[in-house]
């Protein structure tokens, strides 16, 4: 995910929303969590993380709040809004359908 | 809905507290950078290597900020504001051109607006009565051609003709007659001529005019042999009686008779003749008091107006009146005329015309002239615009270098065009304001409003 194309940008949004669905986090923690959960498969370039976060905030799917982090420093925590949760469900369902379709084609056996 | 509210709040924040937003962005990215450095330090890199690696990972602080700002989609407001400021500077830099442009626009717009207001007041406004579009006037097609005696331009019918129409017509749910005439009010050196309005008993009811004080002329006041009563116009009442409700019951000296005042019309009603204003209203039967025989068959002094029946159009009413004409005219045939005169009378045909805009001597006399005047001022404005276009074109060719530089450092075509458009828009806005100021300060007054210094209604602008 070095240069975000349209499709990749969309998936990044989905991943971020899903991570935030579990608990509110700040930007650094989100990138760490992504790396951790995907067992390093997904290496989100930090260059595309923050624009994605700001865009999601602008769209109203996530909400930002300044709180103190675990280490005592002020950090900007993001959390999912109610419309954001619905959007996440919709997008996740779409993604599952899409990936199932791709999977079906890829698995075609040669005749 | 919740989403839109949140988006709106964000937009306001970017607009009104941009510094705060910038600070937060900076703080957020620095936090990430510091955490990244600490992670690298934990992995065992030296301080310098850690810093370098973190910077590489994040991709440059300023670029990141720019990317985030772009993602926020509020850039366009910032751009527009910057364009406006730049346009102002450019215009200030060439004051001669700016002045010429604004003044020529202002004159064109101001002249157009003034003429349009005049036309609006005289031609386009409806009478201030409810459902004015249902009203139609009855008149003789082509006028009476000078036959008999006509009081003024509003005189279409004689009293006997009016009586006949009233009893035989079927096109109107309600019908009334009216006429305008000057009246001498007061005695001695204070005597003045005011605008008088004859009304039949149903007039105020059909027009839906309310009484501000007292009562208005009704059907009982309009019978043959009646004693005259007078109803005042609101403005006349304010001017003459100081708005005193005790004016009801006092008498007004009309010609040589004291006539009791019974009421005052509400302030919006100025009469049926656009451009003229009535001061006092009297029942039609009262004309006999001052020696005008009602039954004169060759004296034209009334107009008849009515509300069309539901479903009737003006054309259908006109056909109906035309069909009735021979009978009505025969019944009101005047005596003492020679055969050719009588024949001419018999040939009159009644018709109906829309009366929503009121009748107007001003309109009939100056109607076409006004439209021609509007066309002329329109052309003047067009010429001013073409002039301005030439000036702008000349300036644009002189600014080629500036635009080339802007494009070279990365401005998109859209932004360059937008900036030039904003300049023209600024000129247009300044020109409009100046034009409006010229218009408002000029001596123009609505001809339908009373002429005693009351506030005229706000002007309608043609820009």
Describe this entry's structure for a reader.
- The complex is a heterodimer of chains A (111) and B (463).
- Chain A has 111 residues and is of the alpha+beta class.
- Helices cover 60% and strands 14% of the residues of chain A.
- Chain A has helices spanning 6-22, 27-37, 46-59, 82-106; strands at residues 25-26, 62-68, 74-80.
- In chain A, strands 1-3-2 form a three-stranded antiparallel sheet.
- In chain A, a hairpin with a 5-residue loop joins β2 and β3.
- In chain A, α1 crosses α3.
- The longest helix of chain A is centred in the last third of the chain and has 25 residues, at 82-106.
- Chain A is globular and about 60 Å long.
- The termini of chain A are far apart.
- The model of chain A is unreliable at 1-7 (pLDDT under 50).
- Chain B is an alpha+beta fold and 463 residues long.
- Chain B contains 14 helices and twelve strands.
- In chain B, the strands form two sheets. In chain B, strands 1, 3, 4, 5, 6, 7, 8, 9, 11 and 12 form a ten-stranded mixed sheet that branches. Chain B has a two-stranded parallel ribbon with strand order 2-10.
- In chain B, α2 crosses α3 and α6 packs antiparallel against α12 (361-398).
- Chain B is elongated.
- At the A-B interface, α3 and β3 of A face α1, α2 and α4 of B.
């Amino acid at each position: 995910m070095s240069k975000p194309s349209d499709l990749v940008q969309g998936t990044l949004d989905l991943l971020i929303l899903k991570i935030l669905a579990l608990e509110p986090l700040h930007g650094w923690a989100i990138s760490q969590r992504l790396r951790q959960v995907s067992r390093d498969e997904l290496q989100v370039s930090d260059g595309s993380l923050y624009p994605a976060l700001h865009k999601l905030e602008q769209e109203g799917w996530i909400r930002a709040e300044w709180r103190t982090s675990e280490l005592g420093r002020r950090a900007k925590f993001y959390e999912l809004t109610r419309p954001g949760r619905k959007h996440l469900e919709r997008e996740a369902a779409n993604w599952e359908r899409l990936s199932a379709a791709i999977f079906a084609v890829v698995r075609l056996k040669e005749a | 809905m919740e989403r839109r509210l949140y988006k709106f709040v964000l937009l306001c924040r970017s607009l009104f507290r941009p510094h705060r937003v910038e600070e937060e962005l900076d703080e957020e990215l620095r936090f990430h950078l510091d955490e990244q450095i600490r992670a690298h330090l934990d992995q065992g890199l030296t301080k310098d290597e850690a810093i370098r690696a973190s910077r590489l990972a994040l991709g440059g602080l300023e670029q990141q900020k720019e990317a985030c700002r772009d993602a926020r989609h509020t850039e366009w407001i910032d751009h527009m504001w910057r364009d406006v400021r730049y346009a102002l500077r450019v215009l200030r830099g060439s004051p001669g051109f700016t002045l010429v442009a604004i003044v020529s626009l202002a004159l064109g717009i101001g002249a157009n607006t003034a003429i349009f207001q005049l036309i609006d007041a005289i031609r386009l406004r409806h009478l201030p009565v409810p459902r004015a579009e249902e009203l139609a006037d009855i008149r003789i097609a082509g006028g009476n051609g000078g036959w008999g005696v006509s009081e003024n331009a509003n005189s279409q019918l004689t009293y006997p003709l009016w009586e006949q129409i009233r009893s035989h017509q079927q096109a109107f749910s309600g019908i009334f007659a009216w006429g305008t005439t000057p009246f001498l009010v007061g005695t001695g050196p204070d005597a003045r001529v005011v605008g008088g309005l004859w009304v039949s008993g149903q007039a105020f009811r059909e027009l839906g005019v309310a009484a501000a004080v007292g009562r208005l002329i009704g059907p009982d006041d309009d019978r043959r042999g009646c004693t005259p009563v007078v109803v005042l116009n609101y403005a006349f009442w304010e001017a003459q009686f100081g708005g005193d409700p005790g004016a009801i019951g006092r008498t007004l000296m009309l010609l040589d008779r004291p006539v009791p005042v019974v009421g005052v019309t509400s302030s919006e009603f100025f009469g049926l003749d656009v451009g003229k204003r009535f001061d006092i209203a009297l029942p039609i039967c009262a004309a006999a008091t001052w020696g005008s025989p009602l039954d004169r068959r060759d004296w034209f002094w009334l107009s008849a107006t009515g509300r069309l029946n539901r479903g009737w159009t003006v054309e259908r009413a006109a056909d109906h009146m035309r069909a009735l004409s021979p009978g009505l005219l025969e019944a009101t045939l005047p005596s003492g005329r020679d055969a050719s005169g009588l024949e001419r009378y018999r040939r009159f045909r009644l018709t109906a015309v829309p009366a929503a805009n009121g009748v107007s001597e001003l309109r009939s006399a100056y109607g076409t002239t006004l439209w021609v005047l509007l066309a002329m001022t329109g052309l003047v404005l067009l010429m001013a615009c073409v002039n301005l276009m030439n000036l702008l074109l000349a300036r644009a060719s002189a600014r080629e270098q500036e635009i080339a530089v802007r494009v070279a450092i990365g401005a998109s075509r859209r932004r360059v065009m937008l900036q030039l458009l904003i300049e023209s828009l600024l000129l247009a806005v300044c020109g409009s304001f100046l034009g409006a100021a010229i218009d408002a300060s000029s001596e123009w007054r609505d001809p339908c409003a009373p002429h005693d210094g009351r506030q005229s209604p706000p002007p309608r602008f043609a820009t």
